[in-house]
Amino acid sequence: MADIKEVDSKAISEPEAIAMLHQLNEDLLPKKFGIRGTLWVILLLIIAGLGVISYISQLRNGLSITGMGDYVSWGIYISNFVFFVAISLVGSLITAVLYLLNVPWRAPITRLAEVIAVAAIMFAGLIIIVDMGRPDRIHHLFLYGRIQSPIVWDIIVVITYMTISLLLLYLPLLPGISFCRDRLTNVPKWQKWMYRFLSLGWKNKPEQYKIVKRSIAILCVLIVPVALSIHTVTSWLFATTFRPGWDSTNFGAYFVSGAFMVGAAGVIAGMFILYRFFPRYDQYITKKHFDRMGKLLVLLSLIYLYFNINEYLVPSYKMKGEEANYLHELFSGDYAPMFWSVQIFGMIIPICVVIFKKGRKPLPLFIIASMVIVGAWFKRFLIVIPTMLHPFLPMQELPEKWKHYMPTLQEWSITAGSLAGALLVITFFVRYFPIISIWEVAEEKGISHKVIYEHLNEQ
Amino acid sequence: MSDIHEDLKDHKEEPNRRNFLKLGALAAGLAVTGAGLQKVFSGSEKPGEKVKVLTTDGQLVEVDKNHLDHSCCGVPSKEARQGIPGKKFVMVIDLSRCRNARKCQKACQKHHHLPEEDKWLKVFKMQDAPSTSPYWMPKPCLHCDKPPCVKVCPVDATFKRSDGIVLIDNERCIGCRFCMAACPYSSRAFNWHKPDQPGVDEAGAYSPETSVPRKIGTVEKCDFCPDMLRQGKLPHCVSACPNGVFYFGDMNEDIITNGDETVKFSQLIKDKAGYRYLEGLGTEPSVYYLPAANRQFPFKDNAEEKPEVKKS
Amino acid sequence: MLNRMYNLTGKRAISLLVILFMAFSVGQAFSQKDTTEKVKAPADQKAAKPAEKSGSDQKAAPTTGKAAIELKVSYVKSNDSRSVKVHVSRKENKKSVGCDSVSVSLYFDEVKAKEANDITGLLATLVTDENGDAEFKLTDKFNKAIADRWKYTFIASIENDKRYKNAEEEVTISDASITLTFDLKDSVKTVTAKLSGRNDTTADLPINKASVKFYVKRSFSLLPIGADGLSTNKKGIVTAEIPNDIMADTNGKITVIARIEEHAKFATVEGRKDIEWKTPRIASEVQGRSLWSVGKNAPVPLVVGSCFIVFLVWGVIFYLFYQLIRIKKLSKTKAG
Asked: Cis omega before residue B213 (within 30°)?
């Protein structure tokens, strides 16, 4: 397991290999953004800034600025949290599962997957603080933490998963940081300092590569159960209650399968951006990658479809008392348009399109992936909110605004801000670090370890 | 994070009004009990300074400070977590007697300084099947023996006491609202904005037993009025009901009372086929219901107009 | 609406404005606009109406703007402690409503104030609670001072109240007492009450044909025991059975009470006595380890299981952190 992939290194001569390495370095080291990139960053900064302003207003006025009430006491903050947790699962999927399965084409996309995972899990943690009524008492969780509560389990697994994801991002990145340190000479001082600090003085030694590869192997085994538990525990925040729609033993598997699907879609979307907007990246992220990720997406969507059938068909066959009201609301009531849109555009159509080879070309696949991501966000909304509107006891004599749930502008703004924030993390990563792992691609291309160790850091 | 506190400071009323509210609290919050000032045979108590209190009908009168009884404030958090020794409280609600008078609710709202939108005791119009007759169902917190809300609390902010009462420590609560999602009886309410609580000294000592002063960003609910129970008095809803719907007592004594009648709990439950709401959930509530059979009043839909929420 | 406004005569319009202004300013000052206005209105209406049934001895001339009230005085003697209770109420929509925060002066024997150390005169000033009740417990000192007397008069008086008319009410009581004794016959516990009064010559005068009720004290109320309609015999004695299924209190006792209620001559007199009670209490629910108990009482498998998993995973994580340190050290060594 120590080596990611053993290849026949004799096929490429040493001078050829050295030339390829230099080409790789030239192509994949981070570069300054063009006008489009700058505009994108500005747009994200504005959205994130508006979110921060709205959050300050929430800190001053309490959660009354949201559309939540005593019945819908969890709103889009929570559904957004579930979305972030779901999308963060991609790190374990692409990196760990493909690694453990020894899939040969994974090298150019693993880091992208890990960055998405780290950004999502960071903002999952932040958005849950945003949802708290008393964020000033967050230390109570550590002072008085109560192990019986699924929230405490969730905090433990989120912190654990974040740490593992960061390690899984950082360890394979060490050579990449050292390349930046050694080759990017024309950059600001702080950037140089950052590379120097983060590279841990990496010297491209075989022993160092050995440690990194061994650590990656350990992490890939470790991250799978942790990733499964993070989303399972998140599903338990709902499934441990009595409420119709949440009271389901299917919830863990249902959430995990949905998370894998949206995670794969997230990576496809990221891949497309790199493929389309970054010069020469299409040499590394190729149509072959889109085709394979498309196949993976179909497989994951079919699994998710299976759990959806379990989740909705079985209860609607029984139509048990309180549950019947909730299901009617989803199937033919107020939430029916959203429910059917999400199921059709977010799951059925993607399966139908991507199952054909033409659907797995970069642009159609990107469009489908975007539909899956948007559908997945609203699916989380549908999991959280309609259930809260169907308690056991009737909802009587309520203030009119508590009978429905309509997120306020500030709520949308904070949610959009968090999404923009996660995208900013990914964007800045792409700006300052090699988003495609140079040494792993070099290995994948069949360049011998000897050449990598000796020549990768050359000027 | 400190913005909430700053905010609380920002919104403090001008000194005059605050001072007045404080005095009002002595009357409304702590209640002026019939305490006596002895002139001749006390020796210890001198006629103290005069203070102004706000009467229940909204007038201002001057009374001697010594007459005001301060003994009814709740006990501190640490003690409030223990429960009253040797007790196990139980409530029985006789649905056949309820005619939606809402005195219980009014008394509850008043004593816990609750605004209109926030009701700890709700009265539901229930109908079990389309062909059956509707009835009124008052519902406080059911104080379950296996409380799902307490199970999920991450910080021990809500807790089950030895006397069966489920309380919330609003100085501990982080406002995650998991307990609200977990409660199958919709018993919990949240302070979405700075609580509107006239007559309460917001800087005053807090006790989980009185749930006062209420605090922004925390969860609250019916508390079975443990401050009253400590004084050997019935919860406000029980004593306010004109029809004797609510019985309250100690399970260990097996005696409950609605203020007028005192009966054996086990006997009443047996004779009138008492049950617990949603028994199938296994939460084991401390509140029992007597079915709406042989009603004292015919069902009349006298529900009040739906309350409008004040814009804060 | 506008038409009606124009129809108002000037005077009415002005008075309306004044009332509105008052209500507004009061409302602003109290920030309790709703209640203030609501309450003010009936109070003004009352003033216009003729005074309704009020205190028995209404001395002061009726002053306009003040509402009539009813004042009740009652006397309760429990073992050796005596107390005087007053209740102040007014009529609102034909219902009796308690008046709170009313100052009531309580006098002994005579209304005239006397110098200190004389028991006659002002005893106390009481302030009613929100139900209109106030209670005054007579001190031991007072009890000693009246030990050689057997007839007392208490006078309650409301004077110069801002809101209500003056009222006065008095109650005269003959002293009586109830002593309790317990018996066990054929495993049936009984309680016997002896009711005795006093007069100038006899200190222990049996009271005949007085209706006595028996109770056991419970947390929030008194549980009636014994047969209905019990009354004393010629010796002033009456007996009741104590049911066996009564639970003892935390001290393994129960308190039995025998009482004559609102007797014309003796007012309310009760005797209380504790008795050791064999019936064991149900042990209060012991809070063991459970999912709903406090954090430190979490179920052992949960604690052990979660700690095991956390230590295992974080052990590996710390091992990986150590690997980072190794990488850094390898960078510093020259060999390789």
From this structure: yes
* Domain edges within chain C: 2-48, 70-174, 176-276
Residues C294 and B75: their CA atoms lie apart, in Å, by 19
Architecture of the domain whose range is C70-174: Sandwich (2.60)
Task: Inform me whether the pLDDT recorded for C98 exceeds 90.
Answer: no
Q: Which stretch of A426-435, B204-213, C15-24, C218-227 has the lowest confidence by average pLDDT?
A: C15-24
CA of A429: how far to CAs of A116, A118, A271, A436, C24, in Å? 10, 11, 14, 11, 62
Q: Do the Cβ atoms of A66 and A407 come closer than 8 Å?
A: yes
Query: Which of chain B's residues have a Cβ under 8 Å away from the Cβ of A133?
Result: 173-177, 190-191, 216-219
Please report whether residue B304 resides in a domain: no
Cβ contact A208–C331 (<8 Å): yes
**In chain C, % of residues over pLDDT 70:** 74
Q: Is residue B140 part of a domain?
A: yes
| Sequence ranges of the domains in chain A | 20-455
Q: Is the pLDDT of residue B173 over 80?
A: yes
- How far is Cα B173 from Cα B158, in angstroms, rounded to an integer? 8
pLDDT digits (tens, 9 = 90+) for C12-69: 545 545 455 544 444 444 443 333 333 333 333 333 333 333 444 444 444 456 788 8
Domain check: are B46 and B153 in the same one? Answer: no
| SS3 annotation, A266-280 | HHHHHHHHHHHHCCC
How many domains does chain B divide into? 2
Of B139, B156, B308, the CB nearest to A144: B156
Q: Using CA atoms, how far apart are residues C71 and C158, in angstroms rounded to an integer?
A: 8
Can you say whether the dihedral through the CA atoms of A414, A416, A422, A423 is positive or negative? negative
Alpha helices in A284-408 (DSSP H): 287-318, 321-332, 336-343, 349-354, 362-388
User: What residue type is A326 in one-letter code?
Assistant: Y
Averaged pLDDT for residues B49-76: 57
Collect all residues of chain B within an 8 Å Cβ-Cβ radius of residue C93: none
Assigned token pair, A188: 């600001």
In angstroms, the CA C111 to CA C116 distance is 15
Chains with 3+ CB–CB pairs under 8 A to A are: B, C
Q: Are residues B222 and B240 in the same domain?
A: yes
Nearest alpha-carbon partner for B202 in B13, B3, B41:
B13
What CATH number has the domain spanning A20-455? 1.20.1630.10
Q: In the structure, how many helices (H) and strands (E) does chain A have?
A: 19, 0
